Amino acid sequence: MFKINHEEAKGGFELVAPGDYEVTVHNYELKKAESSGNNRIVVDYEIRSDVNQPHQGQKILFDNFTVTEKAMWRLHAISKAAQFPDGMQFASYKEWADTLMGKHLVITVGHREHNGNKYPEVKGFKESTAGAPQNGPITIDDSDVPF
Question: Which residues contact 138 (CB under 8 A, 6 or more apart)?
Fold first, then answer.
């Protein structure tokens, strides 16, 4: 049993501020662009909680990679930031996206407006300076368990 305490309620959703964030590639979906019919890879990121930075654990969703000759620079840019070796080859865009999953990199976030609302938008990519998370042993004792 527990009791609701409004004083302990967090502020809820907070718009991710513009800036650079260490992230992990969290999810992807292969789609077709509605207007053009072009293939698209939609990537989601999670701001790393193991790095001291604002917005830890928050998601940046719907970064669209349209598969066209003009837009291939974005796939090359994120691949370089994710430290894929130069010249690495993939049999499909799905294989590329599968390889991208779980990679750590830095994204530069800006804002875009749509229907009067602001949303975070990925403006660029850089290599991670934090490296892979340190997954050491976790010690929990009875005082850490709320029940």
Answer: none
